[in-house]
């Protein structure tokens, strides 16, 4: 118990609330007894000043532009670790040794196939359905296929569900893509690494051999790593809220997928790329910059700034380098969209308007460019995000389920509707 307190004065009464300290980051005021003591709630739309849980998984310092997975800086992990290593770290709290990594990699690899009857599930969707609509439905339906890992009170079942989600999500995503383009599903291969296997399932066809380019696979692995977790964002909070009701893990992850679909969240890289295409050519950039500065114009520059980071997005710094490597490899420098992106980035880093507001290019600005260069349609961008973020969601879910302080989420409100009133018969209204 802390001896530090915060005092709240309401009228002639003073109430004390404990101050809690984490390992790093700001202290929090423990207001769990606020309603009992004062009869009042706090008002915090968007939960921008609210810590809804305690967690040991991810830490963000927005002022410093710092992102830590279990204490490890994202730049070190992206430079040295594979996505599978990062998955192990997020799930279990420590980096694996060589034996643990081999065993974990093998475990994930051996669970990448999905139940054959799930193939029929896809046929219920229209071919032109958005892949995220398919993902939401199929992930939620996993509870209908894997009954032996839905009991959240059983630690072994929770573990099996976690591995299944990490292993099968790329397969489900690749199938969504294949279905949308009218191509046959491609089964996973156990001889390929996580990222290479995903690319193989997306882009290979039965008619010819497909060789995964190592540079492209590395870029894909990096994108997965950079998006693996990001503290209590909207989709992660959704997973935790769904999980607080003791819903099965597949339903919880499906809820996260649905939330991620929003253009203000997981759809931001798709929105950023669509914006670049709307601008079209370099000569039109000044027009759109002027619109962005005009408060009366609803146009917004997508891919710039971040809700949490008040400095550079540390993921964007890594992604920028990767974007150059991929584009050099693919030789797409004459691409008009890329030219617009490069010029827009240059202007944003020099224009006082952007500098003063700290509107730096974020991870979404670069990831969309890379994914398009690899060959993914914009409709798949958020799907790829969901594949990467699955390990973060399931890690956060496992942490919450194991928390002895766990309670069902139940926010309150500031009611501004009509007070109590009497019903009138229809002819008297």
Automatic annotation (TrEMBL):
UniProt-annotated catalytic positions: 306, 364
Family affiliation: Belongs to the citrate synthase family.
Superkingdom of the source species: Bacteria
Organism of derivation: Devosia litorisediminis
Protein name in the entry: Citrate synthase
Region spans: Disordered: 408-429
Family matches, as CDD domains: EcCS_like
Single GO MF descriptor: citrate synthase activity
GO cellular component: cytoplasm
């Amino acid at each position: 118990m802390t001896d530090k307190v915060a005092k709240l004065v309401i009228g002639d009464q003073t109430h004390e609330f404990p101050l809690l300290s984490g390992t790093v980051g700001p202290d929090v005021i423990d207001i769990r007894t606020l309603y009992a003591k004062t009869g009042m709630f706090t008002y915090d739309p968007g939960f921008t000043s609210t810590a809804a849980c305690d967690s040991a998984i991810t830490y963000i310092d927005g002022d410093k532009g710092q992102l830590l997975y279990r204490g490890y800086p994202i730049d070190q992990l992206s430079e040295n670790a594979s996505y599978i290593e990062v998955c192990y770290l997020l799930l279990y709290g420590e980096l694996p040794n060589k034996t643990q990594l081999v065993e974990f990699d093998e475990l994930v690899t051996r669970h990448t196939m999905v139940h054959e009857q799930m193939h029929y599930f896809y046929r219920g969707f229209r071919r032109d359905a958005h892949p995220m609509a398919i993902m939401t439905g199929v992930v939620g339906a996993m509870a209908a296929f894997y009954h032996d890992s839905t009991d959240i009170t059983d630690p072994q079942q929770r573990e099996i569900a976690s591995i299944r989600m990490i292993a099968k999500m790329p397969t489900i995503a690749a199938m969504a893509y294949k279905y949308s383009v009218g191509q046959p599903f491609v089964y996973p291969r156990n001889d390929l690494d996580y990222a290479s296997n995903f690319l193989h399932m997306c882009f290979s066809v039965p008619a010819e051999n497909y060789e995964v380019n190592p540079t492209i696979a590395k870029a894909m692995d990096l994108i997965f790593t950079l998006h693996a977790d990001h503290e209590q964002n909207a989709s992660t909070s959704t997973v935790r809220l769904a999980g607080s009701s003791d819903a099965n893990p597949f339903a919880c992850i499906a809820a996260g997928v649905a939330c991620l679909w929003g253009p203000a969240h997981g759809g931001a890289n798709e929105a950023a790329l669509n914006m670049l295409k709307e601008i079209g050519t370099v000569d039109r950039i000044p027009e759109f910059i002027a619109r962005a500065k005009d408060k009366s114009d609803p146009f917004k520059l997508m891919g710039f700034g971040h809700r949490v980071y008040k400095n550079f997005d540390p993921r964007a710094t890594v992604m920028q380098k990767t974007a150059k490597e991929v584009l050099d490899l693919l030789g797409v420098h004459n691409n008009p969209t890329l030219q617009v992106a490069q010029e827009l980035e240059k202007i944003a880093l020099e224009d006082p308007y952007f500098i003063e507001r700290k509107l730096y290019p974020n991870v979404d600005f670069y990831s969309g460019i890379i994914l398009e260069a690899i060959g993914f349609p914009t409709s798949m961008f958020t799907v790829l995000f969901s594949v990467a973020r699955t390990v973060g969601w399931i890690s956060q879910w496992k942490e919450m389920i194991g928390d002895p302080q766990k309670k069902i989420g139940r926010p309150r409100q500031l009611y501004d509707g009509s007070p109590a009133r009497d019903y009138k018969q229809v002819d008297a209204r």
